[in-house]
Amino acid sequence: MSNCDPNIKTSKPAFSPESLPPGSLHLLHIEKLVAGGLGLGRLNGQVVLCDGSIPGETLEVEILSRRKGVTQGKVLNVSEPTDSRVVPVCPVVGRCGGCQLQHVQYEEQLFQKQLILEDTLCRIGKMTNMPISPVVPSPRPYGYRQVLRMGIGEGRDGVFLGFFESGTQQLLPVDTCFLVDEGFRGVIDAVRTVLCALVRDGMNLESVEIRWSQLEVGGVLIFRGRAQTKEHVECLMNACAEIPNIKGWIYERVDSSGHDSRRRVRQKPMVRGVDHLWEAYGGLRLKMGYRSFMQANWDVFQLLGKTVVERLGVLKGKRVLELYAGTGPLGLTLASQGAQVTCVEGNPFAIHDARESIRVNKIAGCRVKISSVESYLMTVQSGAYDVILLDPPRAGLNPNIIDQLGALRVPHVLYLSCDAPSLARDIKLLCEKGYEIRRIQPFDMFPQTAHLETLVELGLAPAVKAIDS
Fold first, then answer.
1. Which of 349, 396, 399, 401 is nearest to 372 (CA)?
2. What is the pLDDT of residue 462?
3. Do the domains spanning 1-85 and 147-277 agree at the CATH topology level?
């Protein structure tokens, strides 16, 4: 299977951009999907990208604009649909920026995501013949999310909840989200009802984040905004107190800092009830504070954790360094099965949660460190660890960290990524430092979207012996 096309952009197009003026209408055949779930076709030798399409389809498109050498199109009609096209369940698909693939049958989504991953690794990472396993599906294609953040806006009909419209900072009103289950949607409805009944002058709410625990069958609400007084916040919490199954209410004031409106300062929060949840992970109970990262699809994250355990084999006595550990679900799981684990994380709130989880589960052989990854790696001696487990942010690793990893030459590396382009770049550089790819296992952490979680297993490449002349 190959979906690699290194020549998406050409330095000397055969036709001028003016041959596809904005507003012009064309028939476009979709060749493949690319990162972001966009369909790629060609007109007059130019690449045209549009959403809402499936490879193999012929579409009527309107040309919108040309940016960075690529023409953007809008689908007006599907002239020749494929058998994989389905009717989206959400009425705002195409406008909401959340779901890019609801129009694609689920099994086809998995297949197309694997092709996108292969294409990205090939074009950016220059990799061929990659050992990519089929994408692990989500047990629930809908209703899987346990974390959801919604913007709070005000229109002619009053307060509304919504998401940012695709490609804009404009808040789009939505009635519900089908990526959460029925109980969670009931919480959304209840929050909307509460907000509509409040006196809004001085409340200045920006967003609400809802976190949900399958273990506790309950959740917490995190409101963020710029309330004028403490009384405004108390009024909000009193109004939300009757929402069923909510165990905690948090208000965090978010202000502009100094002259730079892009910088945000979160002051000491107001909390009623609890500010955290407990969730089951394997045989453990893990604490998730509201200022710590929490996986949105816990079912798939469980499957990913089992895969990590299987990849590492016998764990007793194995020395594992987990970088970007967060609250430590993976590291604590390995330690509970006999590994000697060091978890490194820069967020002190996440480290506090990890320590609480270690205490509650009585886990030995696990230590946690508050540190940047780059600073901690400077203290690591060669030979100190058998395994490194990486789960960096979307931007991936900076060059200094890759250099440090190359110098340590830890024999076994597991790299977990939510962004294929940064993954491809980093894996290419690690391979240049002496590693080779052993296995690539993608997980569908976010069904109906173009996002994919990928676990890459790396090992040290065999040393090349010098040939005597």
1. 401
2. 86
3. yes
| Interatomic CA distance for residues 454 and 121, integer angstroms | 11
Beta strand pairing status for 246-257 and 260-266?
A: antiparallel
CATH architecture of 147-277: Beta Barrel (2.40)
Q: How many residues does the chain have?
A: 469
Alpha carbon of 158 to those of 152, 169, 176, 232, 372: distances in Å?
11, 19, 17, 18, 44
Summarised one tens digit per residue, pLDDT across range 103-119 is 999 999 999 999 999 99
Compute the radius of gyration of the chain from its Cα atoms. 24
Torsion of CA 113, 115, 121, 124, to 10 degrees: -100
Name the 3-class secondary structure at 187.
helix
Which H or E element spans position 163?
A: strand 158-164
Backbone conformation region of residue 406, classed left if phi is above 0, alpha if psi is from -120 to 50, else beta: alpha
> pLDDT tens digit string along 56-95?
999 999 999 888 778 999 999 999 999 999 999 999 998 9
Rounded Cα gap, residues 120 and 122, in angstroms: 5
Contact between 447 and 112 (Cβ < 8 Å): no
Which two three-digit tokens encode residue 6?
A: 């290194």
**Which segments in the chain show pLDDT lower than 50?**
1-2, 6-15, 258-263, 464-469
The architecture CATH gives domain 121-138+297-460: 3-Layer(aba) Sandwich (3.40)
- Which architecture characterizes domain 1-85 according to CATH? Beta Barrel (2.40)
Q: How confident is the model at residue 371, as a pLDDT?
A: 97
pTM of the entire predicted model? 0.90
Half-sphere exposure of 41 (CA within 13 A, CB side): 25
Phi–psi pair at 104, nearest 5 degrees: -110, 130
Distance CA 319, CA 234 (A): 49
Dig out the tokens for 368 from the structure.
């946690």
What lies within 8 Å, CB to CB, of 102 at 6+ separation is: 86, 88, 89, 90, 93, 448
Please state the domain extents for the chain.
Answer: 1-85, 121-138+297-460, 147-277
Burial 330-354 (b: 16+ CB within 10 A, else e): bbbbbbbbebbbbbbbbbebbbbbb
